[in-house]
Prior knowledge:
By secondary structure, the chain is mostly helical. The chain is built from 4 helices and no strands. The protein has helices at residues 5-15, 25-45, 50-73, 75-85.
Amino acid sequence: MYLTAEKKKDIFREHGQSEFDSGSAEGQIALFTFRISHLTEHLKKNKKDKVTERSLVRLVGKRRKLLDYLKRTEIDRYREIIKKLNIRK
C-alpha cells in the first residue's frame, strides 16, 4: 500500500501542527496532494481506469474547496501552503 500510517504521520508532522493533527486544513491539503500525485502516476500507466479517474477528480475538488476556504479566511496560511507544496493556481 502506498499510504501507510507512518507516511500519514510524516505528512501531518511536516505540514500540520503535530503528527496527530489530522484536522488542520494544511495537513489535509498535503495529504490530498500526496494522493493526487500517486493517482496521477497510476493514470499515466492505466489510461482506461475510469474509476481512478473519477476518484482523482473528486480529490482535486476537495483540495480546491479547502484551498478556497484558506484563501477566504487566512490568506497568509494559503500562500504558505501553496508555496510549500508547489501547487499552481
